[in-house]
Amino acid sequence: MHNKTISIVIPIYNESPNVALLYKTIKSTVKKLPQKFELIFVDDGSSDDSVKKLRGLAKKDRGARVVELARNFGKEIAVTAGLHTARGDAAIIMDADLQHPPELLPAFVKEWENGADVVVGVKRYSKDESWFKKLTSNGFYALLRRVSSSNITPHASDFRLIDRPVIDTFKTFTERNRITRGIIDWSGFERRYIYFEAPPRRFGEAGYSYRKLFALAMNSFAAYSMLPLKFASWLGWFILFVSSGLGLFTIIEKYVLGDPMNLEIRGTAMLAIMLLFLIGVVLICLGFVAMYIARIHEEVINRPLYIVKNEENGDEA
Predict the structure, then answer these.
(1) What are phi and psi of 94, to 5 degrees?
(2) Which of 9, 137, 163, 239 is deepest in the core (most CB within 10 A)?
């Protein structure tokens, strides 16, 4: 694999203070490796002078490419644009804030050389992580693993290497509201893992506020599972059974047995049980509608019916 080329895709959004150090660190790391490397910086509509610095790098280094998006489309689209333009036999996705340590690039390449289709960087908690972040993160992954239709690795990051067949498969996906790691996981290629502790961010502020993290979590549930659409139906059936039981108990206790328990159930209680029953019926109907929406969703995102990893002795053209 010494004559292979590896693309490094780096989404950029207002990362001007990090650009020079990021470039220097990556170049000093990959020069020790036998493969050729191209650096693809995808500027996602930065408002600082990130683009100016990136253009300067591109003028000095033919192996540094700059893709400028017309506006801020979001990190996932920026990564997608980078993978679409990648020419390498494999691609490594990493952030620009140096919290994905460039020093680990040789370890990713080694796993790839050993036959891995996908190499995933998995974060370990640092000593400085707050208990609240650890609690919410563990809770999120525990819930996501239960509801997901894919095999979820807790704390897996976007820091990952993907082989050329995985890149080509990824390029066939057309869904707009996407999570890159979710698509790669769904594809089913063999994954190997490298665990790392993210160093503190050297410059600038984190791009994800708690509000954005919450939105990402909700988007993850929608991307990995259809459970949210099914929840209304399940809740409706639960309410229907409970209200039916209460209604049957009320009729027997009051009208058949003559109120032997002296509950003195009045019309207001009967009305509440009836309303509860109707709410259950409505939720069940919404659940059926959700089933059709789920089917429409699966058709609209237009994912491939299957993915062929390899074929032996196939028919010749």
Answers:
(1) -150, 155
(2) 9
User: Rounded to an integer, what is the distance from CA 102 to the centroid of its chain?
Assistant: 22
- Two structure tokens written together for 236: 């409706």
Classify domain 5-224 at the CATH topology level: Spore Coat Polysaccharide Biosynthesis Protein SpsA; Chain A (3.90.550)
Average pLDDT over residues 198-224: 68
Q: At 164, list the tokens.
A: 């050329």
- Of 77, 23, 76, 31, whose CA–CA distance to 50 is shortest? 23
Q: Which residue has tokens 């679409």? A: 84
pLDDT at 260: 84
Residue 2 per-residue DSSP state:
T
For residue 265, report the phi and psi dihedrals to the nearest 5 degrees.
-70, 125
- Asked whether the predicted pLDDT for residue 141 surpasses 60, the reply is yes
pTM for the whole thing? 0.74
Structural tokens at position 141: 């992954």
Residues sharing a CB contact under 8 Å with residue 142, sequence separation 6 or more, in sequence order:
154
Q: Which amino acid is at 34?
A: P
Instruction: Compute the distance between CA of residue 120 and CA of residue 170 in angstroms, rounded to an integer.
Output: 16
- Give the dihedral of Cα atoms 82, 85, 86, 91; nearest 10 deg: 30
- Domain borders along the chain are 5-224, 227-301
Residues in a beta bridge with 40 = 9, 65
Q: Do residues 239 and 232 lie in contact, with contact meaning Cβ atoms separated by under 8 Å?
A: no
What confidence tier does 257 reach under pLDDT thresholds 50, 70, 90?
confident
In angstroms, rounded to a whole number, what is the distance separating the alpha carbons of residues 181 and 142? 17
Place of tokens 């009208």: 255
